[in-house]
Amino acid sequence: MSRVWLSSPHMGEKEKEFVAQAFDSNWVAPLGPNVDAFENQLVDYVGIKGAVSLCSGTAAIHLALLSLGIQDTDIVLCQSFTFAATAFPINYVHAEPVFIDSESYTWNMDPKLLEKAIMDLMTTGKKPAAIIVVHLYGMPADMDEIMRIANHYNIPVIEDAAEALGSSNKNKQCGSFGSVGILSFNGNKIITTSGGGALLSDDENIISKVRHLSAQAKEPAPYYLHKDIGYNYRMSNICAGIGRGQMEVLPYRISKRREIHERYREELELIDGISFLSEPENFFSNRWLTTVLFDKSVHGEGKNELLRLHLEKLNIESRALWKPLHQQPVFKNCKSYLNGVSDRLYAEGLCLPSGSNMTVETQNIVIKEIKNFLN
Ligand SMILES: *Cc1c(COP(=O)(O)O)cnc(C)c1O
């Protein structure tokens, strides 16, 4: 059997056509009609005023922080349960990350701990300058509560929706709640441009500032004039051509991932000590990756890793959940507000193969092997 991937690129029909147009017109770089069209698709789909396509999701977070004026004396509250790329850009701007643990109904930033952290830091005279919340594995965070708290204390929110394009909360799309939202089109995400990202905002000043900074901060002058430090972060017209095609198939990719999730659930949920994350009422997840938990009190410690090794022997890729950032050596000196939730999720969880190009037959094999292993 050829390797079963966790989540691999899944091209549609039109990507090659848009890329060919770029070749035929020799508009390979920079920017160009595919970039404009792709940004318009994002704006329409997410329901937001502006989108800037960039070379990665990480670059988008970096520019999000810069556009909000975050700098070296600032504290940024960041979800601990996430990929490190959520937090790295806090260090790029020399600000201080403070990590916030998750709640157990969406696995994302716990609003209660968030408010506790804000109040606690304010008593020491250090009001946080921004909040980075993540919609992990496609499940929207509790944005009602998080935005209520952020608005109450007047702190801007950056939404890391790298894994959550197409997810929504009360029919409002992830990436459209905060001051700034970011997306990733890395190869393993729900759609890909072979590598890329985007920054979303309703604030036209933020959008124009980010466009400016992402293209070497060139001032409108007939010679090279710079008043700001710039970055070379734009997306190429080739990558955006792939993105245009991918946007046309996004709804199918979401329904396929959701079907895959439902199959795993139907087959495995009744086994003692196994659980999946449900959508709370009014939450819609794109189900980017299906994750499963093995209750330690039933399965003992490390069942997730044993299953991963078992599947790996059969050439099936599965992965540990994100190791919480408060556990990462690189962030060991950072402050954090913890409640044990992300530590438990990390200790008990496993991401199962979830790619939208996985066939029913392949998923049957994966399910059969998981059942074999558990027996
Ligand atoms: C993928 C990812 C990123 C980074 O996006 P890149 O395009 O790979 O730079 C950031 N945050 C989360 C949660 C991600 O999953």
Strand content is 5-15%
Q: Largest beta sheet: what is the strand line-up?
A: 1-9-8-5-4-2-3-14
- The N- to C-terminal Cα distance equals 23 Å
Structural class of the secondary elements?
alpha/beta
Helix/strand order, N-terminal first: HHEHEHEHEHEEEEEHHEEEHHEEHEH
Walkthrough of the structure:
With 375 residues, this protein is an alpha/beta fold. It has 2 domains: 234 residues, Type I PLP-dependent aspartate aminotransferase-like (Major domain) (Aspartate Aminotransferase, domain 2, 3-Layer(aba) Sandwich), CATH 3.40.640.10; 125 residues, Aspartate Aminotransferase, domain 1, CATH 3.90.1150. Helix content is 39%, strand content 15%. Helix 4 links the parallel strand 2 and strand 3. Helix 3 packs across helix 7, helix 5 packs parallel to helix 6 and helix 8 packs across helix 12. The relative contact order is 0.18. The chain binds pyridoxal-5'-phosphate (PLP). Pyridoxal-5'-phosphate (PLP) binds next to helix 3.
